[in-house]
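ARCHIVE CARD
CATEGORY: sequence design from structure
SOURCE FIELD: tokenized fold
FIELD CONTENT:
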């Protein structure tokens, strides 16, 4: 009991602590501070982020669901290793799904319902111009969330959500390349423009083309050889 009291004196607990640990660990994985294959020890994570061990465990559970972390029986949790080949395979699946979602979003688009997409795009432009790449990466994820919401196609949305977490580290590393963020923004702008104009065929083509650009960039990585 004394240990619990001492822990609660300086470590955060509850829903806020879980969200804090989840956000910090996700950022460290995306940025490569915590590397693929690295073991994640709950007490150490708790101390690092200033939260209880239980909050760290709950944060790990969220990132396991996202595909960023995996739990190995009798050993613990570690950052999931996603090879370039697996990343390309995931993106090829997402081309079909994202194309469908963009098409559905264009079909369901109205002036009021596309405001959030356009506002998010403006924030992406600002983050890209200021080289705030971590923020830009988060806004790309928000773009896809908003598109799924507008598409109203729950099965495709659920499948994309299962695949999305596996790609965030690869996609962030690509953004570090000169000109990649600008190319990404151009591709996503074409998607938003087509959705706003309710051009379903063009929206689907733009979404698929954007992910093809990501695939092509990944295949240029030395590890892909």
């Amino acid at each position: 009991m004394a240990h619990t009291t001492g822990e609660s004196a300086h470590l955060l607990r509850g829903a806020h602590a879980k969200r804090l640990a989840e956000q910090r660990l996700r950022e460290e994985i995306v940025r490569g501070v915590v590397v693929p294959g690295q073991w994640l020890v709950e007490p150490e994570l708790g101390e690092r982020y200033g939260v209880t061990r239980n909050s760290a465990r709950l944060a790990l559970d969220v990132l396991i669901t996202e595909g960023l972390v995996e739990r190995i029986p009798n050993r613990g949790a570690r950052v999931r290793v996603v090879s370039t080949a697996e990343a390309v395979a995931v993106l090829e699946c997402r081309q079909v799904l994202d194309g469908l979602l963009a098409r559905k979003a264009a079909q369901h688009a109205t002036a009021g319902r596309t405001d959030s997409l356009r506002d998010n795009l403006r924030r992406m432009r600002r983050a890209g111009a200021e080289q705030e790449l971590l923020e830009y990466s988060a806004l790309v994820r928000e773009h896809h969330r908003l598109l799924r919401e507008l598409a109203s196609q729950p099965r495709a949305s659920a499948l994309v959500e299962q695949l999305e977490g596996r790609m965030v580290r690869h996609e962030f590393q690509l953004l570090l390349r000169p000109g990649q963020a600008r190319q990404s923004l151009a591709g996503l702008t074409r998607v938003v423009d087509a959705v706003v104009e309710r051009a379903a065929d063009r929206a689907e083509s733009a979404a698929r083309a954007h992910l093809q650009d990501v695939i092509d960039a990944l295949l240029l990585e030395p590890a892909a050889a």
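CARD ANNOTATION: The chain has a mean pLDDT of 87. Residues 2-79 form a domain with the Arc Repressor Mutant, subunit A fold (CATH 1.10.10.10).
SHELF: design records, drawer C
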